[in-house]
Structure to design on (369 residues):
């Protein structure tokens, strides 16, 4: 994504991947989760009480600090095991704390996917309807026949066929005006990470529900699980900002397959779509959600298929919301874990594949069972 955070303009580059191929075996999943109240104390447990290697936490925290992290949380069975804050706030030199807001970058795409799923369950959005059924035709520069092949489902799976870089490697991946949305291939025949095509989902949601993404999301999801935060237009992107604990609450909802303390918010059929391979080109991509443990994956800005899993150091069943500058919500059902990392750039990748893998190498030294 291209953002203007602290008056810094970030540019896209191709991803350089250099990760190991080791993988730990996964234990049987836990069967219960704790859900924190909307306000008040969030229960905690110590690494030692879980049989984890508590001495390795120091090295983990040092690594987080050296890689520009602001917030880091690990949940086990819904309870906080590790919670660290460091560095400065987004818009001031004051210390970053549990009440400080940070941007999710493209990790917010997974949140948008959940909100679209709720609207679908309520009969507001048909996933197989043409995008132009909700907004006007000519929302792209394609012919009407080409444009009419693009559905909401294509937007959720990054298969619109629109040119993700507007005809060239130096093009704008974020622009969502008709002049930027040009034909590359028929919808459904090409996978490409395209933020501009994704952003049009905000227009679809507003047209379908009569509310913007924040208002509808708050009524249907945020308020029900105690999340704070809102989507704010930042440059060309509708970016979600919240506290780290709100990211952890969303991760906990995903860990429990869209159910919060007995109440289903994301229908199971749609949750399954989010967290399983959505097309046969990038096996590691669901509905705006990254999937680990697959035979291959693709990266933003490239049509190369890498013949290995997304994050070899992480459990194979992990799925993730991931965004530029190392924003991460990692969910591991087999270990009943949620891992949150928010912060400044640890590297130059559009989506933090390499950093996520390196971070899991540190986590594996802590999580020894």
């Amino acid at each position: 994504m291209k953002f203007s955070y602290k008056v810094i303009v970030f540019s896209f580059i191709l991803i350089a991947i250099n990760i190991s191929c080791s993988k730990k075996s996964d234990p049987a999943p836990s069967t219960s989760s704790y859900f924190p109240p909307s306000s008040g104390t969030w229960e905690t447990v110590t690494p030692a009480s879980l049989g984890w290697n508590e001495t390795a936490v120091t090295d983990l925290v040092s690594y987080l600090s050296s890689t520009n992290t602001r917030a880091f949380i690990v949940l086990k069975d819904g309870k906080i095991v590790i919670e660290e804050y460091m560095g400065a706030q987004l818009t001031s030199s004051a210390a970053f704390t549990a009440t400080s807001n940070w941007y999710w970058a493209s990790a917010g795409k997974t949140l948008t996917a959940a909100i679209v799923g709720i609207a679908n369950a309520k009969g507001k959005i048909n996933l197989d309807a043409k995008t132009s059924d909700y907004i006007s035709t000519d929302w792209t520069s394609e012919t009407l026949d080409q444009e009419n092949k693009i559905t909401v489902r294509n937007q959720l799976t990054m298969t619109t066929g629109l040119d993700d870089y507007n005809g060239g490697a130096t093009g704008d991946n974020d622009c969502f005006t008709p002049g930027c949305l040009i034909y590359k291939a028929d919808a459904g025949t090409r996978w490409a990470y395209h933020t501009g095509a994704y952003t049009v989902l905000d227009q679809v949601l507003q047209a379908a529900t009569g509310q913007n993404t924040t208002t509808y999301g708050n009524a249907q999801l945020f308020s029900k699980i105690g999340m704070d935060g809102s989507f704010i237009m930042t440059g060309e992107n509708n970016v979600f900002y919240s506290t780290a604990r709100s990211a952890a609450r969303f991760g906990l909802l995903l860990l429990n397959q869209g159910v919060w303390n007995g109440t289903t918010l994301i229908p199971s059929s749609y949750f399954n779509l989010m967290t399983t391979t959505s097309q046969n080109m990038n096996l590691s991509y669901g509905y705006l959600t990254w999937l680990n443990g697959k035979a291959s994956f693709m990266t933003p800005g490239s049509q190369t298929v890498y013949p290995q899993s997304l994050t070899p150091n992480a459990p194979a069943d992990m799925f993730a919301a991931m965004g530029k500058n190392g924003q991460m919500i990692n969910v591991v059902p087999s270990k009943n874990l949620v891992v949150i990392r928010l912060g400044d750039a640890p590297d130059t990748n559009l989506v933090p594949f390499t950093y996520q893998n390196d971070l899991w190498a540190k986590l594996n030294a802590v999580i020894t069972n």
Observations:
- The chain has one domain: 57-90+101-366.
- The first strand starts at residue 4 and ends at 5.
- The CA atoms of residues 169 and 301 lie 8 Å apart.
- The two ends are 36 Å apart (CA to CA).
